[in-house]
Design brief:
There is one protein chain. The chain has twelve helices and ten strands. With 309 residues, it is an alpha/beta fold. The strands form two sheets. The protein has an eight-stranded parallel β-barrel, surrounded by nine helices. The chain has a two-stranded antiparallel ribbon with strand order 9-10. A hairpin with a 6-residue loop joins β9 and β10. The longest helix has 17 residues. The radius of gyration is 18 Å and the shape is globular. The chain starts with 5 loop residues before the first strand and ends with a strand.
Length: 309
């Protein structure tokens, strides 16, 4: 196992956009600052999408200009297309990283962004050099990398071909999303072993959902293959709006607790993270489902297991 991994907290973007409630801007800012104080050094906080499509994130500019985080915290925004990138770059000094995305499956990509994969990829290949030219880090995510709810199994070769094109366009990081929680650990281990072999020099990030309860098992499989970069969402917030009913990302507190108990450092203060998760639970007015939030973490330091508060 690696001694340390990096975790990007995506709840303020990927989580909030799928909640039925619109979280007030001041509360978003407070929660982002709480997460930064918990030790996350990479946060995905906003998206430059049309407000009529995702009204929950229509305050991206206010959030970016209002948030106050330590200087070593990297803020990332998502852009869906060239128009979104143009708007984002007008506020270039408020963030450090831009993520662009495409689905590996044709049906999901058309339902998600109303474009064929080829058209999306061509646009991303134009966008990546613009992002790099603005002095920003460029990340790309391949969604439905492990399965599509409409098409079923996705050929890993297709996923890696898309990833290779994005790497050639200049992306610094490539994320692979189990967008609706269809992956299994054997599949994950095999895929990332091949991805690490065929994409040298590129940071590879694993993004899992917990729809079938296999999210943490998949994270361990990716770790075993050599992955040291993960994405998760506090409180297990989020999901995929395409199709309805897909459950959230793996919970950051569950991932942090598991890794730390395994001896893999995350740099995240679990107590501070649980404080943020409880705060968003109160804000939403309903219980959240992450296991550590409900039952408390396990302390193995004394040679036996016990629950801590």
């Amino acid at each position: 196992m690696p001694a340390r991994v990096q975790i990007r907290e995506v709840g303020p973007r990927d989580g909030f956009q799928n909640e039925p409630e619109r979280i007030p801007t001041d509360d978003k800012i407070r929660l982002i600052e709480d997460l930064a104080r918990a030790g996350f050094r990479r946060l995905e906080v906003a998206s430059f999408v049309r407000s009529d499509v995702i009204p929950q994130l229509d305050d991206a500019i206010e959030v970016l200009h209002g948030v106050d985080v330590p200087g070593d915290v990297e803020l990332r925004v998502l852009v869906p297309n060239e128009r979104g990138l143009q708007i984002a770059l007008e506020h270039r000094d408020t963030f450090h990283d831009v993520v662009i995305f495409v689905s590996a499956s044709e049906t999901h990509n058309r339902k998600n962004v109303n474009r064929p994969v080829a058209a999306s990829l061509a646009a991303l290949e134009r966008m990546a050099p613009v992002i790099k030219g603005a002095g920003l880090r460029c990340s790309a995510t391949v969604a439905t990398a492990f399965g599509c709810p409409f098409e079923g199994v996705v050929d890993p070769a297709r996923v890696l071909d898309l990833a290779s094109r994005l790497a050639e366009a200049g992306c610094d990081e490539l994320g692979f999303g189990d967008t609706t929680g269809m992956a299994n650990p054997v599949q994950v281990r095999s895929f990332f072993a091949e991805a690490l072999r065929t994409l040298p020099g590129i940071e590879l990030t694993a993004h899992f959902h917990n729809t079938r309860g296999q999210g943490l098992a998949n994270a361990v499989a990716a770790l075993d293959a050599g992955v040291t970069s993960f994405e998760s969402s506090f409180g297990e917030l989020g999901g995929c709006p395409i199709p309805p009913g897909a459950t959230g990302n793996i919970a950051s507190e569950d991932l942090v607790s598991m890794l730390e108990e395994m001896g893999v450092a995350t740099g995240v203060d679990l107590d501070a993270l649980l404080h943020a998760a409880r705060a968003v639970q109160t804000l939403l007015g309903r219980p959240l489902t992450s296991h550590v939030l409900v039952a408390g973490p396990v302390d193995w330091s004394g040679g036996g297991a016990r629950r801590t508060s």
